[in-house]
Amino acid sequence: MIETLVTLVVFAMLVAVAFTIIFLERLFAVVLLSAVFSLLTAILFVILDAVDVAFTEAAVGAGVTTVLMLGTIALTRKETPKRTRSDVLPFLVVAVTGATLVYATLDMPSFGSLDAPANAYIRPDYIERTVTEIDIPNVVTAILASYRAFDTLGEAAVVFVAGAGVLLLLGGLARRRDETDEVDE
Question: pLDDT tens-digit profile of 119-129?
Fold first, then answer.
């Protein structure tokens, strides 16, 4: 019961942050609230027992992306130009996409249901094969290190590439500022 309540509170906070982001005009505030959104998403993943996904979301979503966006803001103008067109079409596209996603989830089995394909077919197979094939006593570690090794490697590669991008962006920003300082003198 408490876990459901906490999940609902975190989800409500996610929705509140998302709607706040929609109506903000200051890019700096949007970036910071996007980082808060990513951290709340990571918390939601932890609640749902997807700690590896939560770690990646926190590192890439809240950490690296925030640094990239702040660097981008440093390279762009301080204020955005006033918009002259209506926001109805983008809102309509998002609403239709959201409704389609909600409709697509109606056929999904309940969370944790024993009748779900992952619980009925995949889980028993992993538990049986892990002991004989991999010889690692912890099933979760065995799955992440062996069966899902390419997925875990891909997540690590995403974090590495994002970090390298941040370093390149910050290096270019420092050179640009140095060049600007030389021209001003």
Answer: 777 777 778 88
